[in-house]
Amino acid sequence: MEHSDNKVPQRDIDSQRDIMDMVAERSASLAAPPLAFVDTYGCQQNEADSEKIRGMLSKMGYGFTRDEAAADVIVINTCAVREHAEMRVLGNVGALTHTKKAKPSQIIALCGCMMQEPGMADKIKNSYRHVDIVFGPHVLWRFPEFLLQALTQKGRFFHTEPSDGVIAEGLPSMRDSGVKAWLPIMYGCNNFCSYCIVPYVRGRERSRAPEDVLREARELVDAGYKDITLLGQNVNSYGGGSGTDFADLMAMIDDIPGDFLIRFMTSHPKDATEKLFATMARSEKAARHLHLPFQSGSSRVLSAMNRRYTRERYLELIDMARGYMPDIVLTSDVIVGFPGETAEDLQETMSLVEKVRFDALFTFIYSKRPGTPAASMADVATRAEKQERFDRLLELQNAISEEKHAAYVGTLQRVLIDGSEGEYLTSRTSGGRLVRLHGEPSLIGTFQEAHITSSNTWALYGELE
Ligand code: SAH
Ligand code: SF4
Ligand code: F3S
After folding, report:
1. Which residues contact 51 (CB under 8 A, 6 or more apart)?
2. What would the mean pLDDT of 394-419 be, rounded to a whole number?
3. Which atom of ligand 3 is nearest to the CA of 85?
4. Considering only Cβ atoms within 10 Å of each terminal Cβ, which end of the chain, N or C, has fewer?
5. How much distance in Å is there from the Cα of 48 to the middle of ligand 3?
6. pLDDT band at residue 242, thresholds of 50, 70 and 90?
């Protein structure tokens, strides 16, 4: 696969820029700047997309609010990965009938992964008649055009045609923080894990050109960002086998002068390489953190999940990563209650967790996604059984997280102060562990040394040197 597969032609991006200028003129003619509310569900990829939506809205003269009643435009960026997330979105969209009634000129737009699901656009068309614009992730770059349509024409606008996906360069982005930045390096997924909806709604895997990624990374460093997370559903297959692979890309970003951390999400074990671990170990800026989802500790379940690695291979990879970086922080994702999962399979998952001793674990109960292969697999365990397994796994992990965190007490850690939360400043270690401390807000965005004084399951507490 070529890096520049499916790149949106520059003239098409330019015409969206022209539309942004037109809308900006319109906004400037109003008595006060119009306000937008952008709400985001789902993963970091969606966060990054929302930053682009905000970037475009800002260019179009919009200010921002978190008050739905005050917003002239509401954009809800949705996630389809589990049923629970979808139910929350639909509940919140339903509640917007009230704000729309009070303010009939309000424009309500839904976008993101859920909108790309077969049947979803029709459901919105028929049952959520107060929604004006619906568009999928593939046409996000055309948002200015959709907004102009809704501002100037009567009707409702649906743009969810199926697509393998595109790469749109040169869109403005408005980032939440001045310290941490998401940097998408690739889009889509080709792995088709049997439980997962992402490949159906995000299209085929495609990588941004290394020069485009590097240019954006340099801009971020120049703008003072200190923590850059390279994003993709499976960053280990960056480049699609042509030229620059993920480890090469990481080394190139590492060469950018400056004091900053490089993180990445997510790695797939089937494509994780020794070269990547060696590159991380050598790198000055690579954070000492690896998020490597294992999903199940049972090779039988892994095969039914179409993950294409075994329990043994996963454990080998962990040993290899620790061989290169003994202090590496390891986190992972796991699914409990996959169709056909037995008590023995769960035991294998528990024993893998005990063996690896992850610093933290994201645990999910399997959610049936219509249209995926797992949706038609026999699923005999009851919800209560799954919940019981989930609780047991969580209890095991919480005990491990608590012990791992306790081991930090008394140590000195280099942390990046990234924000505040009530009376505390929040910061992260290179391994991504949360450290709460007291200090001046002016320290946000700086690296500091912190003495760790106490801990619990979820966080560390410290004092600045
Ligand atoms: N591309 C990333 C994950 C994206 S989804 C990867 O492969 O690691 C994030 C997590 O959600 C997955 O790792 C998985 O643990 C969980 N997940 C995905 N589909 C799910 C489903 N149908 N039910 C429950 N959890 C799911
Ligand atoms: Fe989903 Fe698997 Fe792709 Fe991750 S790698 S997005 S879990 S299909
Ligand atoms: Fe959700 Fe789409 Fe991310 S389904 S997890 S927002 S890629």
Report:
1. 173, 174, 175, 176, 182
2. 98
3. 1
4. C
5. 11
6. confident
